[in-house]
Amino acid sequence: MSSDATDEALMLAFQGGDARAFEQLYARYRGTLYRFLVRQCGNAADGEELYQDVWVTLARQRERWEPRATLKTFLYRIAHTRLLDHYRRNRRHRGFLELAEVDEAELEDSSTTGRAEAAWEQAALHAAWQHCLAALPPPQREAFLLREESGLELPQLAQVIGVAIEAAKSRLRYAVNKLRVCLEGQR
Amino acid sequence: MSDNDALSHLYRQLPAEQPSTRLDAKVLAAVNTELAASRAQRARSQRRWRYQVPLATAATVVLAVALFLRQPETQQELLSPRSKDGVAMYKELAREAGSDSAAYKKAPSTIDELRVMQPPLMSAPPPVPAPPMVAMMDLPAPVSSPTVAPESTNAAIASAEPPPARSHVPNMAGIARMGIIADGALPKMQLGALLNEAAGMPAKEFCERLQALWIATDAVPDCPTNDGQHQWPAPLAITWQVTGGHVQSAELRR
Questions:
Q1: Distance between the two ends of chain A, CA-based, in angstroms?
Q2: Does the beta-carbon distance from B24 to A26 stay under 8 Å?
Q3: Would you tell me how many other CB atoms lie within 10 Å of the CB of residue B156?
Q4: Contact call for B35 and A59, based on CB within 8 A
Q5: Of A53, A107, B124, B189, whose CB has the highest number of CB atoms within 10 Å?
Q6: What is the C-alpha separation between A158 and B176, in angstroms, rounded?
Q7: What are the tens digits of pLDDT across the range B73-101?
Q8: Does A126 sit within 8 Å of B15, measured CB to CB?
Q9: Domain holding A187: CATH number?
Q10: Which of A55, A90, A125 is the endpoint of a domain?
Q11: Do A66 and A14 fall within a single domain?
Q12: Which of A69, A90, A111 represents a domain boundary (last residue)?
Protein backbone atom coordinates (compact mmCIF):
# COMPACT_ATOMS: atom_id res chain seq x y z
CA MET A 1 0.00 0.00 0.00
CA SER A 2 1.36 3.42 -0.95
CA SER A 3 2.67 5.77 1.70
CA ASP A 4 0.12 8.47 0.86
CA ALA A 5 -2.86 6.20 1.54
CA THR A 6 -5.43 7.67 3.89
CA ASP A 7 -5.75 6.51 7.46
CA GLU A 8 -9.07 4.97 6.63
CA ALA A 9 -7.71 2.99 3.66
CA LEU A 10 -4.89 1.72 5.83
CA MET A 11 -7.29 0.76 8.57
CA LEU A 12 -9.51 -1.13 6.12
CA ALA A 13 -6.46 -3.02 4.93
CA PHE A 14 -5.51 -3.72 8.53
CA GLN A 15 -9.00 -5.05 9.17
CA GLY A 16 -8.37 -7.51 6.35
CA GLY A 17 -5.24 -8.72 8.15
CA ASP A 18 -2.59 -6.59 6.42
CA ALA A 19 0.20 -6.16 8.96
CA ARG A 20 2.10 -3.70 6.77
CA ALA A 21 -0.88 -1.36 6.76
CA PHE A 22 -0.71 -1.36 10.53
CA GLU A 23 2.99 -0.51 10.45
CA GLN A 24 2.23 2.55 8.34
CA LEU A 25 -0.51 3.65 10.72
CA TYR A 26 1.81 3.09 13.63
CA ALA A 27 4.51 5.23 12.06
CA ARG A 28 2.02 8.08 11.61
CA TYR A 29 0.79 8.21 15.19
CA ARG A 30 3.58 6.80 17.31
CA GLY A 31 5.13 10.14 18.28
CA THR A 32 1.98 12.14 19.01
CA LEU A 33 0.28 9.33 20.91
CA TYR A 34 3.41 8.64 22.90
CA ARG A 35 3.85 12.29 23.98
CA PHE A 36 0.16 12.63 24.77
CA LEU A 37 0.20 9.62 27.08
CA VAL A 38 3.55 10.25 28.75
CA ARG A 39 2.80 13.91 29.40
CA GLN A 40 -0.72 13.13 30.56
CA CYS A 41 0.50 10.49 33.01
CA GLY A 42 3.44 12.60 34.15
CA ASN A 43 5.90 9.71 34.07
CA ALA A 44 7.40 7.64 31.29
CA ALA A 45 6.80 4.21 32.82
CA ASP A 46 3.03 4.57 33.09
CA GLY A 47 2.87 6.34 29.75
CA GLU A 48 4.74 3.58 27.94
CA GLU A 49 2.59 0.88 29.48
CA LEU A 50 -0.55 2.70 28.35
CA TYR A 51 0.98 3.35 24.95
CA GLN A 52 1.48 -0.34 24.33
CA ASP A 53 -1.95 -1.15 25.68
CA VAL A 54 -3.63 1.36 23.35
CA TRP A 55 -2.07 -0.14 20.22
CA VAL A 56 -2.93 -3.70 21.20
CA THR A 57 -6.48 -2.59 21.94
CA LEU A 58 -6.68 -0.98 18.52
CA ALA A 59 -5.61 -4.27 16.94
CA ARG A 60 -8.18 -6.23 18.93
CA GLN A 61 -11.00 -3.81 18.23
CA ARG A 62 -10.17 -3.16 14.59
CA GLU A 63 -13.37 -4.96 13.49
CA ARG A 64 -15.43 -2.45 15.44
CA TRP A 65 -14.07 0.52 13.56
CA GLU A 66 -16.30 1.83 10.78
CA PRO A 67 -15.09 4.10 7.99
CA ARG A 68 -17.56 6.84 8.93
CA ALA A 69 -15.43 7.63 12.01
CA THR A 70 -11.94 9.02 11.53
CA LEU A 71 -9.20 6.73 12.68
CA LYS A 72 -7.63 9.48 14.74
CA THR A 73 -10.82 9.90 16.77
CA PHE A 74 -11.06 6.13 17.23
CA LEU A 75 -7.44 5.86 18.35
CA TYR A 76 -7.58 8.73 20.84
CA ARG A 77 -10.90 7.49 22.14
CA ILE A 78 -9.19 4.23 23.04
CA ALA A 79 -6.39 6.21 24.67
CA HIS A 80 -8.90 8.21 26.70
CA THR A 81 -10.62 5.03 27.90
CA ARG A 82 -7.31 3.49 28.86
CA LEU A 83 -6.40 6.63 30.76
CA LEU A 84 -9.65 6.41 32.69
CA ASP A 85 -8.81 2.83 33.61
CA HIS A 86 -5.35 3.95 34.64
CA TYR A 87 -6.72 6.66 36.92
CA ARG A 88 -9.24 4.26 38.41
CA ARG A 89 -6.37 2.01 39.39
CA ASN A 90 -4.53 5.00 40.86
CA ARG A 91 -7.21 6.73 42.88
CA ARG A 92 -5.24 9.87 43.55
CA HIS A 93 -6.59 11.54 40.38
CA ARG A 94 -10.12 11.94 41.62
CA GLY A 95 -10.78 14.96 39.42
CA PHE A 96 -10.19 13.06 36.21
CA LEU A 97 -12.91 10.56 37.07
CA GLU A 98 -15.39 13.27 37.99
CA LEU A 99 -15.18 15.03 34.71
CA ALA A 100 -18.43 16.91 35.05
CA GLU A 101 -17.82 18.06 38.61
CA VAL A 102 -14.54 19.86 38.50
CA ASP A 103 -14.10 22.22 41.40
CA GLU A 104 -12.70 25.23 39.64
CA ALA A 105 -11.78 27.04 42.85
CA GLU A 106 -9.72 24.13 44.00
CA LEU A 107 -8.09 23.91 40.61
CA GLU A 108 -7.23 27.58 40.76
CA ASP A 109 -5.35 26.97 44.00
CA SER A 110 -3.51 23.97 42.67
CA SER A 111 -2.48 25.76 39.49
CA THR A 112 -0.70 28.47 41.43
CA THR A 113 1.24 26.26 43.79
CA GLY A 114 4.86 25.35 43.44
CA ARG A 115 6.04 28.22 41.35
CA ALA A 116 9.70 28.02 40.64
CA GLU A 117 11.96 30.95 40.46
CA ALA A 118 14.00 29.68 37.58
CA ALA A 119 14.59 32.11 34.72
CA TRP A 120 12.89 31.75 31.38
CA GLU A 121 15.45 30.05 29.24
CA GLN A 122 15.50 27.33 26.71
CA ALA A 123 17.15 24.80 29.01
CA ALA A 124 14.47 25.26 31.65
CA LEU A 125 11.56 25.17 29.20
CA HIS A 126 11.01 21.49 29.46
CA ALA A 127 11.03 21.49 33.23
CA ALA A 128 8.62 24.42 33.31
CA TRP A 129 6.18 22.69 30.99
CA GLN A 130 6.38 19.51 32.94
CA HIS A 131 5.67 21.40 36.09
CA CYS A 132 2.75 23.37 34.68
CA LEU A 133 1.18 20.42 32.94
CA ALA A 134 1.42 18.41 36.12
CA ALA A 135 -0.24 21.25 38.00
CA LEU A 136 -3.23 21.21 35.67
CA PRO A 137 -6.25 19.14 36.61
CA PRO A 138 -6.15 15.96 34.50
CA PRO A 139 -9.30 16.74 32.43
CA GLN A 140 -7.92 20.15 31.43
CA ARG A 141 -4.49 18.69 30.78
CA GLU A 142 -6.04 16.02 28.59
CA ALA A 143 -8.00 18.56 26.57
CA PHE A 144 -4.92 20.71 26.04
CA LEU A 145 -2.62 17.82 25.12
CA LEU A 146 -5.18 16.32 22.80
CA ARG A 147 -5.47 19.58 20.91
CA GLU A 148 -1.73 20.09 20.71
CA GLU A 149 -0.67 16.52 19.95
CA SER A 150 -3.48 15.05 17.93
CA GLY A 151 -4.56 18.20 16.13
CA LEU A 152 -8.20 17.26 16.62
CA GLU A 153 -10.80 19.94 16.02
CA LEU A 154 -13.06 20.88 18.89
CA PRO A 155 -16.04 18.65 17.87
CA GLN A 156 -13.82 15.59 17.50
CA LEU A 157 -11.99 16.46 20.69
CA ALA A 158 -15.29 16.63 22.55
CA GLN A 159 -16.23 13.28 21.04
CA VAL A 160 -13.00 11.69 22.20
CA ILE A 161 -13.28 12.83 25.79
CA GLY A 162 -17.01 12.24 25.84
CA VAL A 163 -18.36 15.66 26.71
CA ALA A 164 -20.36 18.38 24.97
CA ILE A 165 -18.50 20.80 22.74
CA GLU A 166 -19.09 23.68 25.16
CA ALA A 167 -17.60 21.69 28.03
CA ALA A 168 -14.57 20.79 25.94
CA LYS A 169 -14.14 24.44 24.97
CA SER A 170 -14.38 25.45 28.62
CA ARG A 171 -11.73 22.97 29.64
CA LEU A 172 -9.43 24.19 26.95
CA ARG A 173 -9.93 27.81 28.00
CA TYR A 174 -9.17 27.03 31.64
CA ALA A 175 -6.14 24.97 30.66
CA VAL A 176 -4.71 27.72 28.44
CA ASN A 177 -5.21 30.43 31.07
CA LYS A 178 -3.65 28.38 33.86
CA LEU A 179 -0.73 27.30 31.72
CA ARG A 180 -0.06 30.88 30.67
CA VAL A 181 -0.08 32.05 34.27
CA CYS A 182 2.02 29.10 35.35
CA LEU A 183 4.59 29.51 32.62
CA GLU A 184 4.88 33.26 33.22
CA GLY A 185 5.46 32.47 36.82
CA GLN A 186 8.27 30.13 35.84
CA ARG A 187 10.21 32.91 34.13
CA MET B 1 -0.88 36.53 18.39
CA SER B 2 -3.62 35.17 20.64
CA ASP B 3 -2.99 33.43 23.94
CA ASN B 4 -3.77 30.11 22.30
CA ASP B 5 -1.33 30.58 19.47
CA ALA B 6 1.42 31.86 21.76
CA LEU B 7 1.01 28.91 24.05
CA SER B 8 0.97 26.49 21.13
CA HIS B 9 4.13 28.07 19.82
CA LEU B 10 5.74 27.68 23.19
CA TYR B 11 4.57 24.10 23.44
CA ARG B 12 6.15 23.31 20.05
CA GLN B 13 9.51 24.31 21.46
CA LEU B 14 9.38 21.30 23.78
CA PRO B 15 11.54 18.37 22.69
CA ALA B 16 9.45 15.92 20.65
CA GLU B 17 9.99 12.67 22.52
CA GLN B 18 9.56 9.48 20.56
CA PRO B 19 9.00 5.92 21.74
CA SER B 20 12.19 3.92 21.91
CA THR B 21 12.94 1.28 19.27
CA ARG B 22 12.55 -1.33 21.99
CA LEU B 23 9.04 -0.10 22.70
CA ASP B 24 8.26 -0.02 18.97
CA ALA B 25 9.40 -3.61 18.62
CA LYS B 26 7.30 -4.65 21.61
CA VAL B 27 4.18 -3.03 20.21
CA LEU B 28 4.63 -4.47 16.73
CA ALA B 29 5.29 -7.94 18.12
CA ALA B 30 2.18 -7.77 20.31
CA VAL B 31 0.03 -6.64 17.41
CA ASN B 32 1.41 -9.34 15.11
CA THR B 33 0.64 -11.95 17.75
CA GLU B 34 -2.87 -10.60 17.98
CA LEU B 35 -3.24 -10.77 14.20
CA ALA B 36 -1.99 -14.35 14.07
CA ALA B 37 -4.37 -15.40 16.83
CA SER B 38 -7.34 -13.86 15.08
CA ARG B 39 -6.32 -15.49 11.78
CA ALA B 40 -6.15 -18.90 13.46
CA GLN B 41 -9.52 -18.37 15.07
CA ARG B 42 -11.02 -17.34 11.74
CA ALA B 43 -9.55 -20.41 10.06
CA ARG B 44 -11.09 -22.64 12.73
CA SER B 45 -14.43 -20.98 12.26
CA GLN B 46 -14.29 -21.32 8.47
CA ARG B 47 -13.33 -24.99 8.76
CA ARG B 48 -16.36 -25.59 10.91
CA TRP B 49 -18.64 -23.98 8.35
CA ARG B 50 -16.95 -25.71 5.44
CA TYR B 51 -17.12 -29.28 6.72
CA GLN B 52 -18.94 -29.87 9.95
CA VAL B 53 -22.10 -27.89 9.33
CA PRO B 54 -22.77 -29.28 5.80
CA LEU B 55 -22.06 -32.80 7.04
CA ALA B 56 -24.45 -32.43 9.94
CA THR B 57 -27.11 -31.00 7.62
CA ALA B 58 -26.68 -33.82 5.11
CA ALA B 59 -26.87 -36.45 7.85
CA THR B 60 -30.08 -34.92 9.17
CA VAL B 61 -31.66 -34.88 5.70
CA VAL B 62 -30.64 -38.50 5.00
CA LEU B 63 -32.03 -39.62 8.35
CA ALA B 64 -35.32 -37.83 7.75
CA VAL B 65 -35.69 -39.32 4.25
CA ALA B 66 -34.80 -42.79 5.52
CA LEU B 67 -37.40 -42.58 8.27
CA PHE B 68 -39.98 -41.37 5.78
CA LEU B 69 -39.29 -44.18 3.33
CA ARG B 70 -39.04 -46.83 6.05
CA GLN B 71 -42.66 -46.43 7.15
CA PRO B 72 -44.49 -47.89 4.07
CA GLU B 73 -41.79 -50.56 3.72
CA THR B 74 -42.57 -51.82 7.20
CA GLN B 75 -46.25 -52.10 6.34
CA GLN B 76 -45.38 -54.11 3.27
CA GLU B 77 -43.23 -56.50 5.29
CA LEU B 78 -46.21 -57.36 7.45
CA LEU B 79 -48.07 -58.59 4.39
CA SER B 80 -45.35 -60.64 2.68
CA PRO B 81 -42.51 -62.88 3.82
CA ARG B 82 -39.70 -60.71 2.55
CA SER B 83 -37.61 -60.26 5.57
CA LYS B 84 -35.03 -62.42 7.26
CA ASP B 85 -37.42 -62.65 10.17
CA GLY B 86 -39.80 -64.43 7.83
CA VAL B 87 -37.18 -67.06 7.06
CA ALA B 88 -36.38 -67.60 10.71
CA MET B 89 -40.05 -67.81 11.53
CA TYR B 90 -40.56 -70.35 8.80
CA LYS B 91 -37.78 -72.55 10.11
CA GLU B 92 -39.03 -72.31 13.65
CA LEU B 93 -42.46 -73.27 12.49
CA ALA B 94 -41.17 -76.29 10.62
CA ARG B 95 -39.05 -77.36 13.59
CA GLU B 96 -42.15 -77.29 15.75
CA ALA B 97 -43.86 -79.55 13.24
CA GLY B 98 -41.02 -82.07 13.47
CA SER B 99 -37.42 -82.21 12.42
CA ASP B 100 -38.11 -85.01 9.90
CA SER B 101 -41.05 -83.30 8.30
CA ALA B 102 -40.99 -82.31 4.71
CA ALA B 103 -41.55 -78.72 5.68
CA TYR B 104 -38.38 -78.71 7.78
CA LYS B 105 -36.40 -80.34 5.03
CA LYS B 106 -37.71 -77.85 2.53
CA ALA B 107 -37.13 -74.89 4.79
CA PRO B 108 -35.66 -71.98 2.83
CA SER B 109 -32.26 -70.71 3.66
CA THR B 110 -32.63 -67.33 2.04
CA ILE B 111 -35.38 -64.81 1.68
CA ASP B 112 -35.47 -65.37 -2.08
CA GLU B 113 -36.23 -69.07 -1.63
CA LEU B 114 -38.93 -68.25 0.83
CA ARG B 115 -40.43 -65.79 -1.62
CA VAL B 116 -40.82 -68.32 -4.46
CA MET B 117 -41.75 -71.43 -2.51
CA GLN B 118 -45.22 -72.62 -1.58
CA PRO B 119 -46.02 -71.84 2.02
CA PRO B 120 -45.97 -75.22 3.80
CA LEU B 121 -48.77 -74.33 6.11
CA MET B 122 -51.08 -73.97 3.16
CA SER B 123 -50.21 -77.23 1.45
CA ALA B 124 -51.69 -79.51 4.06
CA PRO B 125 -54.47 -81.69 2.56
CA PRO B 126 -57.13 -81.28 3.71
CA PRO B 127 -57.01 -77.71 4.88
CA VAL B 128 -57.47 -77.52 8.59
CA PRO B 129 -58.91 -74.48 10.28
CA ALA B 130 -56.94 -73.36 13.24
CA PRO B 131 -58.54 -74.02 16.61
CA PRO B 132 -59.57 -71.07 18.73
CA MET B 133 -56.80 -69.34 20.64
CA VAL B 134 -58.14 -70.29 24.05
CA ALA B 135 -58.27 -73.93 23.06
CA MET B 136 -54.77 -73.79 21.64
CA MET B 137 -53.39 -72.47 24.87
CA ASP B 138 -55.03 -75.19 26.91
CA LEU B 139 -53.88 -78.10 24.81
CA PRO B 140 -50.38 -79.32 25.63
CA ALA B 141 -49.85 -81.00 22.24
CA PRO B 142 -52.60 -80.02 19.85
CA VAL B 143 -50.72 -81.25 16.81
CA SER B 144 -50.99 -84.88 17.85
CA SER B 145 -54.71 -84.62 18.54
CA PRO B 146 -57.16 -85.54 15.81
CA THR B 147 -57.62 -82.79 13.27
CA VAL B 148 -61.11 -81.70 12.37
CA ALA B 149 -62.27 -81.07 8.85
CA PRO B 150 -64.15 -77.83 8.48
CA GLU B 151 -66.86 -79.15 6.22
CA SER B 152 -68.33 -81.71 8.54
CA THR B 153 -67.37 -81.96 12.16
CA ASN B 154 -69.67 -84.88 12.86
CA ALA B 155 -68.42 -86.83 9.90
CA ALA B 156 -64.88 -86.27 10.97
CA ILE B 157 -65.61 -87.51 14.44
CA ALA B 158 -67.48 -90.51 13.08
CA SER B 159 -64.68 -91.54 10.81
CA ALA B 160 -62.27 -91.47 13.76
CA GLU B 161 -59.32 -92.08 11.59
CA PRO B 162 -56.12 -91.58 13.52
CA PRO B 163 -54.12 -88.61 12.33
CA PRO B 164 -50.56 -89.05 11.24
CA ALA B 165 -48.11 -89.19 14.11
CA ARG B 166 -46.31 -86.16 12.79
CA SER B 167 -48.19 -83.65 10.80
CA HIS B 168 -46.91 -80.81 8.72
CA VAL B 169 -49.85 -78.85 9.96
CA PRO B 170 -48.34 -76.13 12.13
CA ASN B 171 -48.05 -76.70 15.81
CA MET B 172 -50.30 -73.83 16.75
CA ALA B 173 -49.63 -74.20 20.46
CA GLY B 174 -45.95 -73.89 19.77
CA ILE B 175 -46.55 -70.91 17.59
CA ALA B 176 -48.72 -69.36 20.25
CA ARG B 177 -45.97 -69.96 22.82
CA MET B 178 -43.58 -68.18 20.52
CA GLY B 179 -45.92 -65.24 20.58
CA ILE B 180 -46.29 -65.21 16.82
CA ILE B 181 -50.00 -65.63 16.56
CA ALA B 182 -50.60 -63.21 19.33
CA ASP B 183 -49.69 -60.22 17.24
CA GLY B 184 -51.08 -61.64 14.01
CA ALA B 185 -47.74 -61.60 12.20
CA LEU B 186 -47.78 -65.22 11.00
CA PRO B 187 -51.26 -65.26 9.41
CA LYS B 188 -50.49 -61.99 7.74
CA MET B 189 -47.28 -63.42 6.36
CA GLN B 190 -49.10 -66.50 5.04
CA LEU B 191 -51.87 -64.35 3.72
CA GLY B 192 -49.37 -62.23 1.86
CA ALA B 193 -47.92 -65.36 0.21
CA LEU B 194 -51.40 -66.56 -0.73
CA LEU B 195 -52.31 -63.21 -2.26
CA ASN B 196 -49.13 -63.24 -4.29
CA GLU B 197 -50.09 -66.50 -6.02
CA ALA B 198 -53.86 -66.06 -6.03
CA ALA B 199 -54.22 -64.98 -9.64
CA GLY B 200 -55.33 -67.95 -11.78
CA MET B 201 -55.91 -70.25 -8.80
CA PRO B 202 -59.20 -72.21 -8.72
CA ALA B 203 -61.68 -70.30 -6.62
CA LYS B 204 -62.42 -73.27 -4.38
CA GLU B 205 -58.78 -73.96 -3.58
CA PHE B 206 -58.17 -70.29 -2.89
CA CYS B 207 -61.07 -70.09 -0.49
CA GLU B 208 -60.11 -73.27 1.33
CA ARG B 209 -56.64 -71.92 1.92
CA LEU B 210 -58.18 -68.77 3.19
CA GLN B 211 -60.24 -70.82 5.62
CA ALA B 212 -57.07 -72.48 6.84
CA LEU B 213 -55.80 -69.11 7.85
CA TRP B 214 -58.91 -68.23 9.83
CA ILE B 215 -57.83 -67.83 13.45
CA ALA B 216 -60.69 -65.84 14.89
CA THR B 217 -63.06 -67.43 17.35
CA ASP B 218 -65.99 -66.57 15.09
CA ALA B 219 -67.29 -69.17 12.67
CA VAL B 220 -65.31 -69.57 9.50
CA PRO B 221 -67.00 -67.61 6.70
CA ASP B 222 -68.55 -69.37 3.72
CA CYS B 223 -66.58 -70.15 0.64
CA PRO B 224 -68.29 -68.71 -2.45
CA THR B 225 -67.02 -70.06 -5.73
CA ASN B 226 -69.40 -68.40 -8.17
CA ASP B 227 -68.23 -65.65 -10.48
CA GLY B 228 -68.21 -62.16 -9.10
CA GLN B 229 -66.59 -60.19 -6.36
CA HIS B 230 -66.41 -61.67 -2.88
CA GLN B 231 -65.06 -60.44 0.37
CA TRP B 232 -64.40 -61.66 3.88
CA PRO B 233 -64.66 -59.77 7.13
CA ALA B 234 -61.76 -58.87 9.41
CA PRO B 235 -59.32 -60.15 10.47
CA LEU B 236 -58.91 -61.60 6.97
CA ALA B 237 -60.30 -58.57 5.22
CA ILE B 238 -59.84 -59.92 1.73
CA THR B 239 -61.60 -58.97 -1.47
CA TRP B 240 -61.26 -61.24 -4.49
CA GLN B 241 -62.70 -61.44 -7.96
CA VAL B 242 -63.71 -64.77 -9.46
CA THR B 243 -64.10 -65.21 -13.18
CA GLY B 244 -64.75 -68.58 -14.83
CA GLY B 245 -64.22 -70.44 -11.55
CA HIS B 246 -60.72 -69.00 -11.11
CA VAL B 247 -59.49 -66.13 -9.05
CA GLN B 248 -58.74 -63.17 -11.19
CA SER B 249 -57.41 -60.87 -8.48
CA ALA B 250 -57.25 -60.75 -4.72
CA GLU B 251 -56.21 -57.99 -2.40
CA LEU B 252 -56.27 -56.96 1.19
CA ARG B 253 -58.68 -54.20 2.08
CA ARG B 254 -57.00 -51.33 3.94
A1: 49
A2: yes
A3: 16
A4: yes
A5: B189
A6: 92
A7: 555 555 554 445 555 665 666 566 555 55
A8: yes
A9: 1.10.10.10
A10: A90
A11: yes
A12: A90
The rounded distance, in Å, linking the Cα atoms of B214 and B193 is: 15
Residue span of the structural domain in which A37 resides:
1-90
Q: B41 CB near a chain A CB, below 8 Å?
A: no
- Rounded alpha-carbon distances, angstroms, from residue B28 to A37, A48, A111, B33: 18, 14, 39, 9
A143 and A179 in a common domain: yes
**Three-class SS of residue A172?**
helix
- Asked if the Cβ–Cβ distance from B31 to A176 is below 8 Å, we say no
CATH of the domain at A18: 1.10.1740.10
pLDDT digits (tens, 9 = 90+) for B1-27: 577 788 888 888 888 889 999 999 999
For B28, which residue in chain A has the nearest alpha carbon? Answer: A23
Instruction: State the nearest Cα–Cα gap between A50 and chain B, in angstroms.
Output: 11
pTM: 0.48
H helix runs in A42-164, sequence order: 44-60, 71-89, 94-97, 104-111, 122-135, 138-145, 154-161
Q: How close are the terminal C-alpha atoms of chain B, in Å?
A: 105
Q: Does one domain contain both A33 and A15?
A: yes
Indicate whether A82 and A125 sit together in one domain. no
